[in-house]
Write a structure and sequence with these properties.
Elements (H helix, E strand, L loop, with lengths): L7 H18 L3 H7 L4 H9 L17 H15 L1 H20 L2 H12 L5 E4 L15 E5 L2 E12 L6 E7 L9 E7 L5 E3 L13 E12 L3 E2 L5 H37 L1 E2 L2 E2 L4 H29 L6 H26 L10 H9 L8 H19 L1
Parallel strand pairs: 1-4
Antiparallel strand pairs: 2-3, 3-7, 4-5, 5-8, 6-7, 9-10
């Protein structure tokens, strides 16, 4: 791998998470995928290893390693299993609204329990008619004294039902469109908060995906993130910071596929020699390795920009998510091809890697949306520089 001049702390995070992935996650990944169980035993291992708070500031009980630390951890854990790693990564997505927009009281209340691994988080934005079009959400929050009454259903929420803390976007003023949305923190156990069935998925089966249902759910005004009307901005700024995490997940999956394909090509014999000696296979492996390293470089670059406080991160964040997820899909598909018929069989790991890779092109904004974000920012930069 290219030397990315990681700090000693970052190297420690990488080594620790890879060790967990190799020794604790990889051996059970197929079983969790088959049974579609949530990986609570692995969550406990992450908590005991102080991994859960890697991106949370030290003052709130975390490691303070920022987006870069989270990207490194997510990549290595995803090398073991993209679905299992989501217990950690999706908690990050649910935590970012609090990190970015929470007041000090909210941060003191929620961040330490997330950092300790005692509670997981989730981000509830998507609805049946509001995926990429986040401005079309229908879930409402009507003011009632010091409370807001939430009604509506969120769809395909990662960590849904397992998480204790939900960052939720609802409409407080329908007349204002996207500017009428407000973000709330809602805790599991709040009356009126329920969960739908666990979805049956193509990949990331160890991760829980459920509807989050609000029926006259009373949430106190102190649980508003930022202020009323800021919900859409909270969501978009959250994605700007979280997309390198999805990209890192994709890189981890792609790296595992490359590792498996390289090892298999070296030991698989055809025509009296290892298939790794055939130029066609060598070219495939070379392209796969170059694509993975390119994606990793852009992910790390985006993470460092965010940690450095750069304001214009939307474009690079979208770029790294786009490149890494497309790379994961290409590399895992090529890995299946190198394995041949064996690659299509469940007893070998690459078919699962291909299934897990697909979602990275879809969630937290489809790759078509990423291209729109990138193009809009290019046009905006052009106008600004004229």
């Amino acid at each position: 791998m290219v030397d990315y001049l990681l700090t000693e702390e970052q190297k420690m995070i990488k080594e620790l998470c890879h060790k967990i992935a190799l020794e604790k996650i990889k051996p059970v990944a197929a079983e969790y995928d088959e049974k579609e169980e949530f990986p609570w035993p692995i969550v406990k291992i992450l908590a005991d290893s102080d991994v859960c708070g890697v991106y949370i500031p030290e003052q709130y009980g975390g490691m303070g390693a920022g987006i870069m630390g989270m990207a490194i951890a997510t990549e290595e854990l995803s090398w073991g299993c993209g679905g299992i790693a989501l217990a950690f990564a999706a908690t990050g997505l649910g935590t970012f609204p609090i990190l970015l927009f929470g007041n000090d009281e909210q941060k003191k209340k929620y961040l330490p329990v997330i950092a300790s691994g005692k509670k997981l988080a989730a981000f509830a934005l998507t609805e049946a008619e509001a995926g990429s079009d986040a401005g079309s959400i229908k879930t409402t929050a009507k003011k009632d004294g010091d409370y807001y009454i939430l009604n509506g259903t969120k769809q395909w929420i990662t960590n849904g039902g397992e998480a204790d803390i939900y960052s939720v976007v609802a409409i407080t003023d329908k007349t204002k469109g996207a500017r009428g949305a407000t973000a709330f923190i809602v805790e599991k156990g709040t009356k009126g908060l329920e969960f739908g069935k666990k979805e049956k998925k193509l990949g990331i089966r160890a991760s829980a995906t459920r509807e989050v249902i609000f029926t006259d759910c009373r949430v106190h005004k102190d649980n508003i993130l930022s202020r009323e009307g800021m919900g859409f901005i909270v969501a978009m700024k959250t994605f700007d910071s979280s997309r390198p995490g999805v990209a890192a997940q994709a890189v981890g999956i792609a790296q595992r596929a490359l590792d498996e394909a390289t090892a298999y090509a070296h030991q698989r014999k055809q025509f009296g020699q290892a298939i790794s000696s055939f130029q066609g296979i060598q070219f495939m492996l070379a392209d796969m390795a170059t694509q993975v390293e390119s994606a990793r470089a852009l992910v790390y670059s985006a993470a460092r920009m965010i940690d450095a406080g750069s304001k214009d991160i939307a474009k690079v964040s979208a770029m790294c998510k786009l490149l890494a997820s497309d790379t994961a899909m290409k590399v895992t598909t090529d890995a299946v091809q190198i394995f041949g018929g064996y690659g299509y069989m469940r007893e070998y790991p690459v078919e699962k890697l291909m299934r897990d890779a697909k979602i990275t092109q879809i969630y937290e904004g489809t790759n078509q949306i990423q291209r729109s974000v990138i193009a809009m920012n290019l046009i905006k930069e052009l106008a600004k520089n004229k």
